[in-house]
């Protein structure tokens, strides 16, 4: 499992727009860099990220080899009530990591 940092505001009001920031530690090997033996290092990138709130996708993106290692992703959302946020990263070689956070609306 990769190390993930997630920043969600502590206090969220119903209907208020707020930002969610994520950082995942991942080497993001492009597949173009030569190795020491004259070959090319295998591609190993995160290819997609999705965020779902109460089972409905609220944000998603596709990533390419041009994205830096340890991708930092930030997006905004608005909710009317408390619920479960699921963040999911998928990538080459079967990489699949999910994190779940509770969003509490005051």
Short overview:
With 106 residues, this protein is mainly β. It is 0% helix and 48% strand. The chain has strands spanning 4-7, 17-24, 46-53, 56-62, 72-78, 83-91, 96-103.
What can you tell me about this protein's structure?
This protein has 106 residues and is mainly beta. It has a domain of 70 residues: Immunoglobulin-like (Sandwich). 0% of the residues lie in helices and 48% in strands. It has no helices and seven strands. A hairpin with a 4-residue loop joins strand 6 and strand 7. It is elongated and about 60 Å long.
Alpha plus pi helix count: 0
Mean pLDDT across every amino acid position? 95
The shape is: elongated
Spans with pLDDT under 50 lasting ≥5 residues? none
Structural class determined from secondary elements: mainly beta
Question: According to CATH, what is the topology of the domain at 1-14 and 44-53 and 61-106?
Answer: Immunoglobulin-like
Quote the distance from N terminus to C terminus.
33 Å
The CATH architecture of the domain at 1-14 and 44-53 and 61-106? Sandwich
Rg is: 16 Å
CATH superfamily of the domain at 1-14 and 44-53 and 61-106: Immunoglobulins
Strand content: over 45%
Number of DSSP strand runs: 7
Largest sheet: 4 strands, antiparallel
Q: What level of helicity do the residues show?
A: under 10%
Pattern of helices and strands: EEEEEEE
How are strands sequenced across the largest beta sheet?
Answer: 4-3-6-7
Q: What is the CATH C level class of the domain at 1-14 and 44-53 and 61-106, in words?
A: Mainly Beta
